[in-house]
Each structure stands twice: as structure tokens, then as C-alpha cells.
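Lecture 7, part 2: worked example. A protein chain together with flavin-adenine dinucleotide.
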Amino acid sequence: MTDKYDVIVIGGGPGGYAAAIRAAQHGFKTACIEKRVGAEGKPALGGTCLNVGCIPSKALLDSSWKFHEAQQSFAEHGIQVDGVKIDVAAMQKRKDSVVAQLTGGIASLFQANKVTWLQGTGKLLAGKAIEFTPLDGGASQTLNAEHVILAAGSEPVEIPVAPLVEDKVVDSTGALAFTEVPKRLGVIGAGIIGLELGSVWSRLGAEVVVLEAVDTLLANVDKQIAREAGKTFKKQGLDIRLGARVLSTDTDGDEVKVTYADKDGEHTETFDKLIVAVGRRPNTNGLLAPDSGVTFDERNYIFADNQCRTEVTGVYAIGDLVRGPALAHKALEEGVMVADVIAGEHTQVNYDAIAAVIYTHPEIAWVGKTEDEVKAAGDNYKTGVVPFAANGRALASGEATGMVKFVADADNDRILGMHVIGPQASELIQQGVIALEFGATIEDLQLMVFSHPTLSETVHEAALAADFKAIHIAQRRRK
Ligand code: FAD
Ligand code: NAD
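Predicted complex, written out as C-alpha cells:
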């Protein structure tokens, strides 16, 4: 194996694989080091996202939603189905095959683009050298590259009060692999993972209790949207307890006992499984030699400037390793940006226009500023809010929960944020991304013609509503 490359990427997740492919497209001799062994016991590309994150969770969310619909809403459409049952093994097999298809797809893309996949662990040494330890047990070797991209991702945070216990107290990876539906499922953390995975098992019949330390649900989501989310989750039977501080867990016996404290005192709940979903932290374990020269920021992420340069010339860090939202699309775009920067292009990720999506049902999605953020900044602003209950397509498909909300600058009409809870929010939010990227005004959206009947008409109406011009809801201008 050659030991000299133009670009070496450590980590083959969305950040790393995209960086490697784009670097190879630029004509750089590129290698990507990835240590992961996938579910089938074979080396796997795709990182957290494809193996144990975005993709398997969405596969289970989709399967469990179909089950829920067959049980709860088919009848309303006149479809009679008796004896609907869930076969968890078949559902998991489908999820695994989706994962295998996609991770195999990245390996094919590497081949097509002539990216060398080095299967093993990479460590950055002093002077930009890399120690590579192969998965097959071969001897470690030192590799060199003009440019190094660190893309080692993140791992779940563990808390001392709830240590993981195989098959009983699990992190998100364990919760994606349950072989049966738990009767009573506890979840610590009402963040994105807690809500998505709590929803999966709740739809399949588990009684789910979510214990959240903070006393506000979805504290970083626009308040109006978060309130609607809270109401909907309650209706769906998710028992979310806010201000609940877990004090201890006891895994003796078949069950898991969780003791927590809230404003009313101490309580104990018993579950057959417990998911710990209290956040993720950068995966820097073993990644850097003490004298690598790479430094950390105040939150213990690898320090990176807005083009992902670390303090070592020629070494970049991207994705979950660095500041900003821990999202696959953010990691991917940073990887592409870094490869383009290495090739001498002038480019910049627009960190102000990165959408976030929670794939519950209804989905929750947002981009840009919340109303509270704009208010706190003292800006003169306006909002436009329209419910999906006023949308023909949403009603026709029986998906009329939720709303679209715009926050805009009242002086120059510029769109500052878009917030959606409702059907296809994950798709609709891309209209907000495009609007923010183009610096669009509310009037720009008002003057566009949206197809009828589509969910997107609610985006149009919400823009109209910002100036009291909505057609399909009764609006009274505030004096
Ligand atoms: P990762 O995907 O974590 O990849 C890093 C890779 O580096 C890993 O495969 C690791 O094995 C490898 N590695 C680490 N250290 C070394 C080393 N020293 N040598 C060699 N290899 C190494 N985000 C979304 O945008 N949408 C979603 O729907 C979504 N759903 C999620 C669901 C779950 C359950 C979880 C856990 C996460 C989810 N995320 C989602 C977050 C998303 O997975 C991450 O933001 C994304 O994977 C980060 O990409 P990355 O390339 O930075 O790192
Ligand atoms: P999170 O930061 O979204 O939520 C963690 C929650 O746990 C917070 O509400 C926090 O207040 C709570 N918490 C922290 N410590 C606690 C404790 N001791 N007891 C009770 N509650 C506690 O983290 P996550 O849900 O673990 O997800 C990690 C990251 O993965 C997310 O930030 C997100 O970036 C990414 N992710 C994204 C998606 C998506 O894009 N759809 C899906 C899953 C994960």
C-alpha cells in the first residue's frame, strides 16, 4: 500500500465520505480510513447516519407508522383490515437490508471515484502524519498526506445514573435493534432521538414514558410549534414528564427501576427497557496524539474556523466533531466545502440556512430564527401562521394537524425563519431553506403561484398571512 496521498479522510460517515468523493472528483489521490464493522460483521462505510442513525431510525419510523395507520386510520378511509399484527423480526430485517443497500452504495461510489478505503483506525500524529491500524490485525503504518480531514463523528453521552446494561438499558443503537416490542419503555431525554425512537415503539404498542430534565419541551424549537408538538404527542399517548431528573436506575431482576425527582418529589417507575438519549459528544477518543497540534473549543469540540480549518495548517475537522448542529446534511456539506477549499475554490457553507427535522408524526422542521430569538434581538418583526386544517390536500389525506409559520423582518420584509409542524414538514422546510439562501422576502413568496391542491399552499398562505392577506383563514389585522 502506498503511504503518500493528497488527501486522507479519517471517518467514512456523511461528512467523511462526501469529502473523500469530492476530493477525488477534484483529481486528488484520496484515501478514507474507516474502522466501523457493520451489523453483518463486515467493514462498513456510511458512519453513524447510515448504520445506526438517520437511515435505520427512519426505516423503523416508516414501518411503525404504516402499522399505526393500518390499525388506526385505514377504517376511516373505508379500508377494512382485520387482525393487523407486527412481525418485529421482519421489520428489523427490512431495516437491515435498507442499511446494507446504502452502505454498500457508498463502497461502490468509492470504487467509481477511485477513493481508497482503508479499513481500520486512523490517528493524527505530530506533523500531520497519520498512524493507520488495519482492522485485519496487520501492523500499524504511518501514512502521509498534504491534507487531512478529520471526520470521526460522535458517540452517545452516557450518564452515571443510568449506565448501559446490555438489552435493558440501551443507547440509540440498542433501541434500533429491539427484537420485540417492550411492554413498558422508559426514555431518558425528550430530544430528537428520544422522541423519534419513543414514537417507533409507542406506535407498535409499548407504553412509553419519557423523562426530560428540562422543564420545557423542545426548548430550541419555536414556542408555538413546540406547544402544538406537546399537545399532539400527548394525544398519541407519549407520556412526557418534564423537569424530571433521574437519580438512579436499578437493573437487578428482569426489569429496570428508575428513580427520578421532579417538583412534586421523588418517584419510581418500572420498565422492561430503558433508552438513554441525552445527547451526543464528539468522538475524539484515540483520534489525536497528544502532540498533534489540534486544539479544542470551550465545549470540547475540535476547534474549527468557519471553513473547518483546525489550528494545524492542512488539517480540517468537520461534522459532529465540530461546532454547529449534529446533523448529517451539515456534516456532508462541510465535507464538500473542505474538499472544494483544498482545491482552491471560494466557497462557504451557509450556517444560517441549515434546516433541522424531527421525524415524529407529524414531522417538525425549522430553519432560521424563531420568533423568540427575533424578539430578544429587539428587531421589528412580523409572523404569518396558517394551520393545515385550512388546506384541501391535508384534509383530503387526513393529515391536517399542525401549521406553517414564517418569521420575517417587518422593516425590509426579509424572511428570517420558517417553522413547520405537520405533514411532510421535512420536505416543505426546503422551501424555507431556498428562501433564506436567496434572501427572499415574504412578498417574493406571496407573488409565486403554488400548485393546487398541495401541502405547499400552506407555505404560500403563511407568507400571505404575515401581511394579513391569507385567503383561506379569517384574519383580522391587529391595530
Ligand atoms: P459519523 O456519521 O458519526 O461518522 C464518523 C465515522 O468515523 C464513524 O463511522 C466512525 O466509525 C468513524 N471513526 C471514528 N473514529 C475513527 C478513527 N479514529 N479511525 C477511523 N474511523 C473512525 N441526522 C440527520 O441529519 N437526520 C437524521 O434523521 C438523523 N437521525 C439520527 C438518528 C440517530 C439514532 C442518531 C444517533 C443520529 C442521527 N442523526 C441524524 C445525526 C447524524 O447521524 C450525524 O449528525 C452524522 O452521522 C454525522 O456525520 P459525521 O460524518 O460527522 O460522523
Ligand atoms: P438532544 O440534544 O436532541 O436531546 C437530549 C435531551 O436530553 C435534551 O432535551 C436534554 O435536556 C435531555 N437531557 C440531558 N441530560 C438529561 C438527563 N440527565 N436526564 C433527562 N434528560 C436529559 O440529543 P439526542 O436526542 O440524544 O440526539 C443527539 C443528536 O443527534 C441531536 O442533537 C441531533 O443533532 C442528532 N439527531 C438528529 C436527528 C434528526 O435530524 N432527525 C435524529 C436523531 C438524532
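The CA atoms of residues 123 and 287 lie 5 Å apart. The chain has a mean pLDDT of 97. Keep this in mind for problem set question 3.
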